[in-house]
């Protein structure tokens, strides 16, 4: 060990004695960062994910590692210095390990030079730090394999150039091999072998934040194997070129084959060890305890059939991930779940008869472009009932969908969401298609609820979509349902804005539903809430030439709710995706005894109110701002209440039986199909998530809110600050870290030179 | 002690060393002499553990270098030919690495000792790549001494050095040889004579002669020749005139060259420098005009070749 460290130190010193060493180390992260920021367009893509950066980084390491290791033996032999090294009392293992350790440490330093990338870009969005940690771990493990492969190439090559090329080719091939499966159709066994051998395929789970023991040890095993071969090669040269076919050569060859077999067997065994760590936020890629409990307490076996086309599984990573999640489910269920994976291409008609959705996929076969019909869907059967997930291509929401389907099978009923349209001039068919679809995706059966008639007792949740047209009878029905332990989602507004009438705003007068809310302690003011954190709207004006032109202008009546201004503790907003609120009114909260309330959503501190002058026209900035200074501050926009509603004066004053839940969101237009205008599914997803909380499915909710989502780069908001921060990031990434990397060897060499000068002795 | 028995080494089809056996006694300096390509380096490398013998056995102080290479390396100090050192470290850094690699506990005093012994004090902080050949050779020697080894194996320790540098190194080696087992290879006869108490002569991968160094040097030096070109005489007459010089000098050749005669004398054993004086006086005494007088020592290669022939014949 001591000798190994001595050699590693010496190798590091040799690298540092080379003044441009820092440049070599900085080149890989600089290239990766430049590619990620400027070619890949990080800011343009507007996603808080560094996946692309790490993908390029592994390729950059595949170039750097050969450059760092090419000298290790080839140059040592060329200079003749190997002779001295080998005459010192090192064992071959110590020599190989010392050189390997030094190369790996240099690669690790190069990886560390890229740290400003996550550190500075992290200011722009809500990145999943667990995933980033896993990706770094993946790169460091990858570096193990790369350093070992590089050393073997150097040990086997006559010149450093040959060593560089050999290890570069080997590394690129091993890294990119896994992608071959997507390009050409290979026999199944070969395809499996290819992805098993590929370093890139073993790196993939790290990019999701999942560190599997099998993948991590794969890199370690590959490193160990190549180091073993390197040691054999160094040792072989010591015995130097015995004539071909000599017993020693045969022995060595036999030993190589044996070690390959041992390596393969070990790798195979290790891959079966079910150890894994899920570092992603909320363990998004691990079955939640809720799901585990759900499947392990089923009374009867749940038959799960995964129908997937082989051609899809060969070319797309999705089916493998889906299958792996299903296998995890199977093993967590203690025998209750019986999984079958069926190749749908053998019997596509049967799959489609079960409700699996056919999809088209382009394939290239023998240079011929073809369209293939592929399937990837899951059928769950329990007793004599079944549920179908017709098209599943990723695991992002799969656990939620499986749990939801399992739950409805086990209970033998599907949750019902009753939808009550309360705004005048709106209907379920024309205005709430997006909302209905989102509820359907979450497993709810939607049913229209007529205002004023009693709410069916089997409804899990009542959506009151707007309030202006609701009368006392309707309010009484809502109150009765709620007091019986019901769950209500109420989208309300205090001011009606009519897009058809030049955005004219009218405060709502006396209203039974709003009065009901007020009785619960939730007052929807007849005012408008505005925020500088706003959506933009297209606005048609006459341009300079007189022709009509469309400009995007910020419209503070449409608030883009910021993740920083939602309740961090409430399960509904604990992991918040986003919410776009249209013409919301400020909400005032005076909680009643027994019916406590939580503020879910507010504006930013740069929010304000329009109390009297309700101007809502585009670009009427001066009018909007009239009351800004008087009302500036965070305005409440949504609240959640849980408990026993107080008597609202609708009779039945007897004590309510069960606890009720109520979510009130201001801005009822936000849940109409107008929300589709922004292209985001935030609002519909928020409503579906609220349905889960309201109907008491906290377990399901816990799966859903932790599911990975692509967060936006919305942390900063203010353009001036954002551009300053960008400059700081670029400086940190492209100047600071590489600068330090360059400076260290340069300072070292300057100091060495000055010491050399002081001793004066020159021969 | 170094005990080599039946050592052979091939490189592909080339048989570098054939069945070599010898013993190097402790407290002596043994010279391994021979022309380039004789197999000296192959023998030394095998002893130092840089490569393994194809057959045969090498014991260093009783340790088999194949079975326990690390044990053997630990007690050997090895100086390879041409001092192959990394150019970037300073002697100080390099010797520190060697001391660490050799597992020394008290590194600083050991480094100071060898730096003083090898005269490196003034250059300890100058990168090795900037040092002269002589200093590089000293650094290489210092690394071989840093662990105070029982056995020293030195491959051409003075090759490429100027006479003064070579002298210094020789003195150093001579002082080291008093308490250690030293095996050094050289192709400089004077060096072997001056330093070694024993000598082994290799040629064509075999040992062709062995014995006391002085005696062997004397034998080898018997091959000194003198070339003389004189005017005013014919070859036959010159030969007759030269006859009385025997047995110390014999004229082996006399041929006409221009208007004179070119004569080659072979000097007998131990004629030393006075052989040329003798020839000069002889020419003068016979009234011959000397155009040229050149002393020509047979190259070691020629001597070795002749020895090999003798060996093959016998």
Could you describe the 3D structure shown?
- The complex is a heterodimer of chains A (763) and B (314).
- By secondary structure, chain A is α+β, with helices and mostly antiparallel strands.
- Chain A has 28 helices and 24 strands.
- In chain B, strands 6-7-8-3-9-10 form a 6-stranded mixed beta sheet, with helices on both faces. In chain B, strands 2-1-4-5 form a 4-stranded antiparallel beta sheet, covered by helices on one side.
- Chain B has 314 residues and is an alpha/beta fold.
- In chain B, helix 4 packs across helix 5 and helix 7 runs antiparallel to helix 8 (213-221).
- Helix content of chain B is 37%, strand content 30%.
- The A-B interface holds A 2-3, 6-7, 9-10, 13-14, 17-18, 79-81, 83-84, 86-91, 237-243, 752, 755-756, 758-763 and B 10-13, 45, 48-52, 54, 70-71, 73-74, 76, 78, 80, 82, 84-90, 93, 97-98, 100-103, 121-127, 130-132, 134-135, 140, 143.
Whole-number average pLDDT of chain B? Answer: 84
Secondary-structure class of chain A: alpha+beta
Query: Which structural class do you get from the secondary structure elements of chain B?
Result: alpha/beta
- Biggest pleated-sheet summary of chain B: 6 strands, mixed
Strand content of chain B: 25-35%
Quick one: biggest sheet of chain A? Answer: 7 strands, mixed
Strand order of the largest sheet of chain B: 6-7-8-3-9-10
Q: Please state how the strands of the largest beta sheet of chain A are arranged side by side.
A: 10-9-11-12-24-23-21
Largest interface: A-B, 37 and 47 residues
Mean pLDDT over the full residue set of chain A? 87
Which regions of chain B contain 5 or more consecutive residues with pLDDT less than 50? Answer: 310-314
Give the distance, in angstroms, between the N- and C-terminal Cα atoms of chain B.
30 Å
Strand-and-helix sequence of chain B, N→C? EEEHEEHEHHHEHEHEEHEHEEHEH
* Total of DSSP H or I helical runs spanning 4+ residues of chain A: 28
**Strand percent estimate of chain A:** 15-25%
Report the principal-axis shape of chain B: elongated
User: Unreliable stretches of chain A, pLDDT < 50, 5 or more residues?
Assistant: none
- Rg of chain A: 32 Å
Q: Give the CA-CA distance, first to last residue of chain A.
A: 36 Å
């Amino acid at each position: 060990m001591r000798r190994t460290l001595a050699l590693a130190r010496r190798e590091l010193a040799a690298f540092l004695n080379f003044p441009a060493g820092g440049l070599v180390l900085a080149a890989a992260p600089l290239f990766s960062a430049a590619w990620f920021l400027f070619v890949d367009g990080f800011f343009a893509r507007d996603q808080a994910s560094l996946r692309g950066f790490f993908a390029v980084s592994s390729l950059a390491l595949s170039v750097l590692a050969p450059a760092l290791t090419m000298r290790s033996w080839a140059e040592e032999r060329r200079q003749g210095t190997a002779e001295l090294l080998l005459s010192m009392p090192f064992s071959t293992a110590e020599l190989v390990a010392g050189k390997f350790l030094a190369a790996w440490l240099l690669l690790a330093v190069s990886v560390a030079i890229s740290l400003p990338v996550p550190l500075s870009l992290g200011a722009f969005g809500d990145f999943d730090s667990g995933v980033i940690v896993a990706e770094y771990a993946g790169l460091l493990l990858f570096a193990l394999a790369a350093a070992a492969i590089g050393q073997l190439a150097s040990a086997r090559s006559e010149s450093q150039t040959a060593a560089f090329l050999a290890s570069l080719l080997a590394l690129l091939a091993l890294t990119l091999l896994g992608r071959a499966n997507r390009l050409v159709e290979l026999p199944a066994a070969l395809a499996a072998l290819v992805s098993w051998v590929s370093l890139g395929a073993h790196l993939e789970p790290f990019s999701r934040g999942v560190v599997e023991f099998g993948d991590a040890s794969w890199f370690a095993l590959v490193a160990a194997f190549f180091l073993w071969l390197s040691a054999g090669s160094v040792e072989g040269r010591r015995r130097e070129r015995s004539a071909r076919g000599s017993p020693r050569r045969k022995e060595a060859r036999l030993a190589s084959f044996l070690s390959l077999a041992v390596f393969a067997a070990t790798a195979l065994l290790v891959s079966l060890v079910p150890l894994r760590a899920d570092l992603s936020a909320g363990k998004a890629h691990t079955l939640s305890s809720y799901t585990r409990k759900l499947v392990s307490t089923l009374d009867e076996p749940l038959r799960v059939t995964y129908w997937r086309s082989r051609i899809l599984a060969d070319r797309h990573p999705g089916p493998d991930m889906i299958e792996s999640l299903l296998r995890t489910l199977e093993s967590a269920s203690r025998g209750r779940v019986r999984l079958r994976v069926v190749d749908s291409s053998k019997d596509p008609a049967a799959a489609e008869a079960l409700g699996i959705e056919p999809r088209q996929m382009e394939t290239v076969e023998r240079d011929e472009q073809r369209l293939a019909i592929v399937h990837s869907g899951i059928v769950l059967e329990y007793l004599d009932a079944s549920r179908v997930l017709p098209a599943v291509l990723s695991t992002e929401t799969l656990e939620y969908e499986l749990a939801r389907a399992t739950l409805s099978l086990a209970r033998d009923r599907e949750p019902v969401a009753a939808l009550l349209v309360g705004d005048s001039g709106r209907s379920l068919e024309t205005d709430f298609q997006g909302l209905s679809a989102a509820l359907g995706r979450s497993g709810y059966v939607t049913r229209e609820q007529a205002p004023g008639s009693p709410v069916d007792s089997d409804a899990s949740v009542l959506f009151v979509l707007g309030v202006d047209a609701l009368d006392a009878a309707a309010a009484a029905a809502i109150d009765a349902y709620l007091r019986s332990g019901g769950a209500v989602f109420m989208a309300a507004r205090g001011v009606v804005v009519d897009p058809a009438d030049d955005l004219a705003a009218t405060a709502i007068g006396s209203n039974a539903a709003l009065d009901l809310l007020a009785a619960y302690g939730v007052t929807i003011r007849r005012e408008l809430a505005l925020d500088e954190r706003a959506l933009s709207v297209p606005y048609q004006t006459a341009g300079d030439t007189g022709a009509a032109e469309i400009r995007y202008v910020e419209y503070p009546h449409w608030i883009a709710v910021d993740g920083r201004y939602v309740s961090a503790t409430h399960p509904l907003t604990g992991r918040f995706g986003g919410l776009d609120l249209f013409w919301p009114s400020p909400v005032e909260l005076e909680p009643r005894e027994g019916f406590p309330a939580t503020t879910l959503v507010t504006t930013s501190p740069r929010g304000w109110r329009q109390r009297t002058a309700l101007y809502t026209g585009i670009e009427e900035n001066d009018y909007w701002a009239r009351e800004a200074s008087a009302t500036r501050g965070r305005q409440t926009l949504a609240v959640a209440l849980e408990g026993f509603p107080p008597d609202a004066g609708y009779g039945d004053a007897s004590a309510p039986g069960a606890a009720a839940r109520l979510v009130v969101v201001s801005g009822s237009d936000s849940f109409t199909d107008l929300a589709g205008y922004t292209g985001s599914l935030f609002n519909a997803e928020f409503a579906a998530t609220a349905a889960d909380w309201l109907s008491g499915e906290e377990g399901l909710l816990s799966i859903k809110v932790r599911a990975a989502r692509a967060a936006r780069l919305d942390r900063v908001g203010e353009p001036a600050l954002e551009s300053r921060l960008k400059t700081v990031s670029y400086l940190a990434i492209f100047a600071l870290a590489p600068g330090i990397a360059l400076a260290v060897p340069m300072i070292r060499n300057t100091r060495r030179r000055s010491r050399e000068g002081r001793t004066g002795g020159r021969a | 002690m170094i005990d080599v028995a039946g050592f052979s080494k091939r490189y592909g089809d080339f048989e570098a060393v054939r069945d070599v056996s010898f013993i190097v006694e402790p407290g002596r300096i043994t010279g391994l002499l021979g022309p380039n390509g004789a197999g000296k380096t192959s023998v030394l490398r095998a002893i130092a553990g840089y490569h393994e013998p194809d057959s045969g056995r090498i014991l260093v102080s009783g340790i088999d270098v194949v079975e326990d290479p690390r044990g053997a390396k630990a007690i050997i100090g090895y100086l390879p030919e041409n001092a192959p050192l990394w150019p970037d470290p300073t002697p100080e850094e390099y010797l520190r690495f060697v001391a660490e690699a050799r597992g020394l506990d008290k590194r600083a005093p050991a480094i100071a000792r060898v730096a003083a012994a090898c005269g490196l004090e003034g250059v300890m902080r100058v990168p090795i790549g900037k040092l002269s050949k002589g200093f590089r050779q000293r650094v290489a020697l210092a690394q071989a001494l840093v662990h105070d080894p029982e056995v020293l194996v030195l491959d051409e320790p003075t090759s490429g050095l100027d006479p003064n540098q070579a002298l210094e190194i020789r003195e150093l080696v001579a002082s080291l040889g008093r308490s250690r087992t030293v095996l050094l290879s050289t192709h400089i006869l004077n060096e072997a004579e001056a330093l070694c108490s024993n000598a082994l002569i290799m040629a064509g991968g075999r040992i062709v002669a062995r014995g006391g160094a002085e005696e062997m040097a004397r034998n080898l030096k018997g091959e000194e020749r003198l070339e003389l070109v004189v005017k005013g005489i014919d070859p036959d007459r010159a030969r007759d005139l030269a006859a009385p010089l025997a047995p110390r000098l014999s004229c082996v050749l006399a041929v006409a060259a221009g208007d004179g005669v070119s004569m080659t004398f072979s000097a007998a054993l131990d004629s030393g420098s006075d052989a040329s004086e003798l020839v000069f006086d002889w020419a003068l005494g016979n009234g011959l005009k000397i155009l040229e007088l050149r002393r020509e020592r047979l190259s070691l290669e020629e001597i070795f070749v002749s020895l090999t022939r003798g060996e093959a014949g016998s």
